[in-house]
Hints:
Elements: H1 2-22, E1 31-34, E2 45-48, E3 52-53, H2 60-75, E4 79-80, H3 83-92, H4 103-113, E5 117-131, E6 134-147, E7 153-162, H5 165-168, H6 178-196
Parallel strand pairs: 2-4, 2-5, 3-5
Antiparallel strand pairs: 1-7, 5-6, 6-7
Helix pairs in contact: 2-6
Amino acid sequence: MKLISKGLCVFMFLFGLALLSLSACGPKLPTLHKLTPLPQEKTCRIAVLPFLNQTGYPEASVIFYRIFLAELVQSGRFDIVQEGDVRDVFHHLRVWPGQDPQKEQMKILGDRLGVKIVIAGTVVEMAEVPEAKIINPTLAVSLKILDTESSQTIWCTFHRREGEQYRKMMHFGVVNTVTGLAHRVSQEVLELWFKEGLKGCIG
């Protein structure tokens, strides 16, 4: 089941990229694929695992990770495990940068951190492209909600934005930095997750 879930998430990511290349407006983003139900009880405590970087942009995963984590904290819905505590468990389990925990490691991680679900992610595109007199940043990410007991993917999400889209399509004013765009992308993913049923128990 884990392999099937992973394959579906990869397929959804590639399908999203294909639609973006075929349509001037692109598909409705972010996209969400629900593979298994969330835990029935509300989620009180959650950990965000270090994100992976598949771009040529230096520190792309760290930039997006910390901004996404900050937006999750800002939501006020969860008890968020500190980044340092997550990295300490990774170090103890010998999960090195650029690696995902294996199934047994995920179970131990869940026990040590006191969490039933975690968020994992990959930054697949990050760039700042000069256009006329402005910088048009681009950002694409793939995010997963995982069950620590089974290491199974519960939800997977793909999202991609360009800063210029906020002026042309949403009339919010252009976003001209990758950090500003990362905040927008994080907010939009979390808004979708909350709308679709990810519930905390704080606030």
